[in-house]
Write a structure and sequence with these properties.
mainly alpha, 2 strands, about 70% helix
Length: about 575
C-alpha cells in the first residue's frame, strides 16, 4: 500500500525506517552512559545513599515509596523504578543510566507515532521526533540518573495522548478511563504533568479539530456529531481535579522538605523577571545549544532592558501566533504548549536555587519543535522537490545535533567533569564549585577540593554544605581543630544539620573526647531520628564508656532503621 500524508498506516515501509533511524541514532550517542559513574548531585538521595532504594523491591520499601514525602517530593512510581533497577542491577551505575536511555527511546518513538496518527503528516512528525531524541537540551533528563522522573513521567504522559487519540475517535467511558489512569501514573512520577489537561485542549483545536465541529454539524448525522466547545472543557474536569489534588500534595511535600524559597529571598518582581528571561533563554538554547550546564545560578541583577526585551519578545510572538490561528494553527498550539507546560517550573513558586534548568524543557520544547517542523515544511513548499529538500536538511540538522549532543553527554561522565563544565560556562556558581570540590575530595585531591570550597563560600558565605565539606577536607588532612571550626560555621547557618553533628561527634571520638562525642551524636539523632549512622556511632561511644546495655540499645535502633547496615552487626 502506498503511503501518503493523508493515509496513515504505521506498518508501511517509511515509518519502519524512520523508527529504526530514531532508535539507532539515539543509541549511538547515548550508549556511552553505560560507562558513567553516579554523580554527587541528588543521585545519592535517589539511589546509592538511600537505604530504602538500596533494599530493592520489598514490602517495606514499597510502603515507604507511597507514604513518604522524602526529599521534598511525593512520586512513588519514581522510587519504585529506582528500586527495580537495584533489584535487577544492584548499584551498577552504567545500567541505571541505560534504563533512562531506554525510556528516552520509547518516548521518542511514541511521540512520532502519536503525531503521525493525529496529524497524518509523516515527515513533520519524524522531524519533531528526531529533534526530541537528539537535541542537547535533553541530555540532562536522560544522562542524570536522579532525573528518572522526567523520562518516566513523559512516557506516561505520551500514553495519555495515545489513549486520548483513541477516545476522540470513538468517545466512551471505557476509552476515557485509560486517559485518566495514565494521567494518574504520570503525576505519581513527576507533578510537572499537571499541565496535561491544558495540552489536551490545545490538541482539541489542532490537529484533532474538535473546536471546528460546529461546521461539521451542518452535514453530518446527529449520531456522528462531536462535542460542543463547552463539553470539551467539561470532559477535562476529572483531569483538572486530579491536577489540583497533585498540586496540593506537591506543595505539602515541598514545604515539608523546606525547599520552597521565601519571597524575602527572591521577591515576586525578581521572579517575574527571571521567568521572562528564562522563557527567552530556553528558546535561545533550543536554537543555539551552547554553554549548557547542570545548574544555572540565580541572578538578581539582570539589567532591566534585558527583561523588557524578553517581555516584548514573548508578547510579540504570542500576538503573532494568535493571528495565525486559522491559517497556521500549529503555530499557536506549539507556542502555547511551550509557554503553558513550563508554568509549574518557571520560578513563580521558586523551589531550589536554580534560575532555570535544561531538564525543565523535556516536554515543553516539543511545542517549539512542532513550530519548527511544520513551519520549515511550509517554507520549503515554494521550492521544487519539497520533500526531498526537507529530508536532506532534516538529516543534516540531525547529524549536527548528534555531534553536539555526544559532546554534551560526555560531561556527565562523573561529578568532576560535570561540575567543571558548569564552573567553566557559568559565573558565581557556588553550588557547582561545591560539588566540583566534593568530586575532587572523593578522588583524594584534598588541596584542589579545598580551593573550590573556598570559592563556593566566597560567592555564598552562608552555604552550610560548603563548610561541611571544608571540614571533611581538614579532617582528612589531620587538622581536627580546624575541622571543628568549619563544622561550627555550618551549624551557625543550619542549626538542625544532623550530618554535621554526627561529624563533630566522630571528630571528638577520634580525639578521645568520648563524652562530648556522645552529646554530639545525640544532637544528630534529635535532628534526624532515622539517622542510622548516628545511632551506630552513639553505640560505639557508649560502649567505650562501658555503658554496654545502652550501646546495644543504640545498635538495635540502628538495625531497626537499616537492617542491611553491616557495620552495626560488626559492632
Amino acid at each position: 500500500m502506498r503511503n501518503t500524508d493523508d493515509n496513515y498506516n504505521i506498518n508501511v515501509r517509511p515509518e519502519v525506517w524512520i523508527c529504526l533511524f530514531l532508535v539507532l541514532s539515539t543509541l549511538l550517542i547515548y550508549f556511552q552512559v553505560g560507562t558513567f559513574e553516579f554523580d554527587n548531585y541528588d543521585t545519592g538521595k535517589y539511589v546509592y545513599d538511600n537505604r530504602h532504594v538500596k533494599a530493592g523491591l520489598t514490602a517495606k520499601s514499597i510502603k515507604w515509596a507511597f507514604t513518604t514525602v522524602y526529599f521534598s517530593n511525593w512520586h512513588p512510581l519514581t522510587w519504585l523504578s529506582h528500586m527495580l533497577d537495584v533489584q535487577l542491577y544492584g548499584l551498577h551505575p552504567g545500567r541505571h543510566h541505560l534504563t533512562n536511555v531506554l525510556f528516552h527511546i520509547a518516548n521518542t518513538i511514541l511521540l512520532f507515532v502519536i503525531l503521525r496518527r493525529m496529524t497524518g503528516k509523516l515527515w513533520q512528525s519524524a522531524f519533531v521526533a528526531a529533534l526530541f531524541a537528539l537535541h542537547p537540551l535533553h541530555v540532562e533528563s536522560v544522562a542524570w540518573v536522579a532525573e528518572r522522573k522526567d523520562v518516566l513521567s513523559t512516557l506516561f504522559g505520551l500514553m495519555v495522548l495515545w489513549s486520548y487519540t483513541r477516545y476522540v475517535q470513538n468517545p466512551s467511558i471505557s476509552r476515557y478511563v485509560p486517559v485518566l489512569i495514565f494521567f494518574l501514573l504520570g503525576l505519581m512520577t513527576k507533578p510537572m504533568m499537571v499541565t496535561l489537561p491544558f495540552v489536551l485542549l490545545l490538541l482539541d483545536y489542532w490537529p484533532l479539530g474538535r473546536f471546528q465541529l460546529d461546521v461539521a454539524k451542518q452535514t453530518e448525522k446527529p449520531a456522528r456529531q462531536g462535542p460542543t466547545k463547552w463539553s470539551l472543557f467539561v470532559e477535562k474536569l476529572p483531569l483538572v481535579i486530579v491536577s489540583a489534588a497533585s498540586c496540593v500534595v506537591t506543595l505539602y511535600a515541598q514545604r515539608a522538605g523546606d525547599s520552597i524559597v521565601s519571597m524575602n529571598v527572591y521577591p515576586f518582581h525578581i521572579r517575574i523577571a527571571n521567568a521572562l528571561n528564562s522563557y527567552v533563554g530556553y528558546i535561545g538554547k533550543m536554537i543555539w545549544p551552547a554553554k549548557l550546564a547542570v545548574i544555572y545560578p540565580y541572578d538578581k541583577m539582570v539589567p532591566a532592558w534585558q527583561t523588557w526585551t524578553a517581555c516584548f519578545l514573548i508578547l510579540g510572538l504570542t500576538v503573532l501566533s494568535m493571528k495565525c490561528y486559522k491559517s497556521r494553527p500549529w503555530f499557536p498550539v506549539g507556542w502555547l504548549w511551550f509557554l503553558g507546560t513550563l508554568v509549574p517550573v518557571i520560578g513563580l513558586v521558586q523551589v531550589g536555587s536554580q534560575a532555570m534548568a535544561d531538564r525543565y524543557t523535556y516536554v515543553p520544547i516539543v511545542g517549539l519543535f512542532i513550530i519548527v517542523a511544520w513551519g520549515f515544511f511550509e517554507f520549503l513548499a515554494r521550492w521544487a522537490y519539497q520533500r526531498l529538500n526537507f529530508a536532506v536538511i532534516a538529516v543534516v540538522i540531525s547529524g549536527v545535533l548528534m555531534v553536539v549532543t555526544w559532546q554534551q553527554i560526555g560531561y556527565w561522565k562523573n561529578s568532576v567533569t560535570l561540575f567543571q563544565r558548569a564552573v567553566d560556562v557559568t559565573a558565581n556558581n557556588f553550588i557547582a564549585e561545591n560539588n566540583l570540590g566534593h568530586g575532587l575530595l572523593m578522588d583524594g585531591k584534598f588541596a584542589e577540593a579545598a580551593e573550590h570550597f573556598k570559592k563556593s563560600l566566597e560567592i555564598n558565605p552562608k552555604f552550610a554544605i560548603a563548610y561541611l565539606n571544608m571540614g571533611l577536607v581538614l579532617s582528612q588532612e589531620n587538622k581536627p581543630d580546624e575541622a571543628l571550626e568549619a563544622y561550627a560555621k555550618a551549624l551557625v547557618q543550619k542549626p538542625d544539620f544532623a550530618v554535621v553533628y554526627n561529624l563533630v561527634g566522630k571528630t571528638h571520638y577520634r580525639l578521645g573526647n568520648t563524652e562530648q562525642a556522645v552529646l554530639n551524636y545525640q544532637q544528630a539523632i534529635a535532628a534526624d531520628t532515622a539517622f542510622a549512622e548516628a545511632h551506630n556511632n552513639l553505640g560505639k561511644a557508649l560502649f567505650r564508656l562501658g555503658k554496654h546495655d545502652e550501646a546495644f540499645a543504640s545498635y538495635r535502633q540502628a538495625l531497626t532503621i537499616d537492617p542491611l547496615y553491616a557495620e552495626v552487626y560488626n559492632s
